[in-house]
Each structure stands twice: as structure tokens, then as C-alpha cells.
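#structure-requests
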Amino acid sequence: MPARVKIHSFLVVIGFLLILSCGCNGKPDTAKNVNVGVLFPLSGDLADKGKDSTDGVRLAVEEINAAGGISALGGVKLDLLIGDTQGKPDVGVREAERLIKDQGAVALIGTYQSSVTKPATLVAERLETPFIVSTSIANVITERGFRYTFRTQSKAQFYGRDQVRFLTELGDLAGYPVKRVALLHENSDFGTSAALAQKRALREYGLELVAEVSYVAEGVDDLNSEVSLVLAAEPDIILETTYLKDSILICQAMADAGATIPLVDTAGGTVSAEYVEKLGPLADGTLTLSEYSKYAAGGKELNDRFRARFGTDVTGDSAHAYQSVWVLKDALERAGSRDKKKLRDALAATDIIRGPQMILPAERLRFDDNGQNEFARLFVMQIQNGELVPVWPAEFATARVRIKSDR
């Protein structure tokens, strides 16, 4: 065979082998890492929430990688692929597809908003890619029969349950019995699903719903009329479901009206540091559900690490994002593979007992048949002297509830 033919044949073989090494889809082999897609709103009105959540993911990944990565895969590291939903469902869908199809994510974590999480998890289900929902409470997210969706956070039903249980105990806790309740909420999937859960719990516990007022949070700059409608019903307490800007507007409107009726938020805008920064002393007394507290067992250690890395305290959003990465790490170790179907099966079998890998306020993390963390629970926090402190349940409380009302 002539030398020129031999060289040509050799080059053809080498080219064929290179094509095989890239895989049939032409993408490079990513065996040196595990690609994890992270999908939060990093621009727009909710950019602060997106950054907080992404920082929670980032800290967990850095700690896992520094400790040796995924041992079952020979110590490979986790590699973050960041997507920005902009707070928009259609953008979230495109970003989910990009992270999975173009970037090779073996799993996604996100997205903060239920209205974005619903279609994004649909993409992941279609592409058979595990999606760990760190934050988004709409019940329907884990009630569609999806096999690849897993939620570490409480669902809306749990939020309503724990809020109303707290209301029934306010008589004993603070000498403030509650009978009449009003709802004030933004009208996206977040607010409407929370309101449905609240109404269900109010009926179950025998409290009276005297008013329900909803509003569009995006672009809102005045909520005085909505607050006036709620106050006209003369409730004992107001359950609100908010994002940051609207939570501030509600508190200001309450002050303008001279109202002292307690507000109990649904882990919304009131858990943001900016809520206190913007309102100052007006924020004091606000109550809210929260998925995490730095005062809980092990909370200070995590909070110290988070503050040293990012300059802020851990919130429920960043805590659940952090926890979601450890859930993924646990599943990867048991799956011993990047194969997404094997990883999905390992996630479905998750059963983490409280310890170094479990930082949430529960003794256990386990997914039910729908992918919902069945042991998820919540704190009630109150802003006292500018600081969010746990006041319920009793085993986690570090302060007594303070109610200032002239009713």
C-alpha cells in the first residue's frame, strides 16, 4: 500500500475515534466532572432572591469539592452551570433546555418561583433529567405524576397548616386569641397556592375568613387601597404572601392607616434583609414563616460559613438551595453513576437522617411517591429589634411572641 494511502487511512481512523470520544451528539466527554444546572432569577425584580439561592448552591458545591468531590465516581467534582430565568416562565423553559441539551446538565436545581418551576420541571421531565426544587411552594409541582421532580421545601399545604396552627396558639403564646383572619396576597402561583392552603387550614381549625384581597406584584408601587379593603373587614390578624417590594408597601400602608393588626407572611419578602433595611423600626413585630433559622441546631455554624463567604446571613432560600446540593451529592454516591435514570432512582430512594448532610428543621429528609419531602416543616419568625428570631414551635423558639395591637 502506498505511503500516502496509509497516512490517509490512519487519519480517517483517528478522526473516527475522535468523533466517538465526543459521543453521538458531538459534545465533549464530561467524565472529569458532574454538570449541575442552577436555575434562578439573577436579573429583574427578584435578582436578590436568585443570588441568595445561587450562593447557597455555590457554598455547598465548594464544600463538597474541597472535601474530595463524589467519591463513588473517583473523586470527580461538581461543576455549576448557571442559568438566569429573569423571573419569567418562558425564559425559564429556554434556560432549562439550554442547560440540559446544550450544556449537558445531569440534574437541575431551582427555581424560586412556582410559576417558573412548573414549566421548567415539565422540560426536565420530558428530557428525563432530575430536577430538585429547592424553593417553590405550589402544591401542583409535585402532584402531576412526574418521576424526575423532587422538592426539598415544604409545599403550600404545609405552609397553610403551620401558619394556622400558630394562629390557634397565639392566645396562649401572647394573650392574643385569633378568630377572624384576612388574606392579602400577590396573585401568581405562589400567592394563590398559599391562599388556597390557608383557606383549607382555616376551615380545618375553625377560624373565620373575613376577607381575601389579591394584587399583581410585578411593577406595583402602591397597595394602600388593597390594605384598606382588608382593614375594613376588621380581622384579628392578616396572613400575607409577598415578594420583597410589595411586602414593604404593605407595611408602609399599614403604618399610614395607623393599623396595628399583626402581619404573618408566608416566607416571602419579609425574610429579606432589605425588608428591615428599608423599613427600619416599622419592620419590628412582623411575623413570617421561614424554612430555616441560624438559631436552630447547627444553624450558627452554617450561617458563619455563609456570612464569611458572601457577607450575608443564610435565609430559607439559600438554606434549601444548599440542602438540595447535598441531596444530589448523596444520590450520586449511591447511584455511582452520572446516568440520569440511575440518578433519578437514587433520588427517589433518598432517606437522610439529621446530621452533617441535613441542615433543615426536621429529623429526616425523605421523598414520598410524588417527590415531595414528606418531613418538611417550618418555623415562625418575628422581627424583633431588627433581627429575625424564631418564636414557634416551642422547641425552636429563642424569644416570646410580641403582639402590639389596640384592638
